[in-house]
Amino acid sequence: METILKVEGMTCGHCKAAVMKAVEGVSGTNNIIVSLENKEVTFNTSNAETVEKVKEAIEDQGYDIV
């Protein structure tokens, strides 16, 4: 399933890279796209628990999921 999360606080390339790294670090995610312009991350997963882990990983980097 494709999931799109709005990420508040991304302002630069470093932010984009930090969010990408956080999502890549969660097992079960693929086709990850981080859009700085739209302030969102899109990824595929087959598991709802993985979505929650992604949210936690992004928040651990200091960004908010809205």
Automatic annotation (TrEMBL):
Pfam families: HMA. Residues 1-66 form the HMA domain. It comes from the Bacteria. Keywords: Metal-binding. SUPFAM superfamilies: HMA, heavy metal-associated domain (SSF55008). InterPro entries: Cu-bd (IPR000428), Heavy-metal-associated_CS (IPR017969), HMA_dom (IPR006121), HMA_dom_sf (IPR036163). The keyword GTP-binding does not apply. Transmembrane segments: none annotated. This is HMA domain-containing protein.
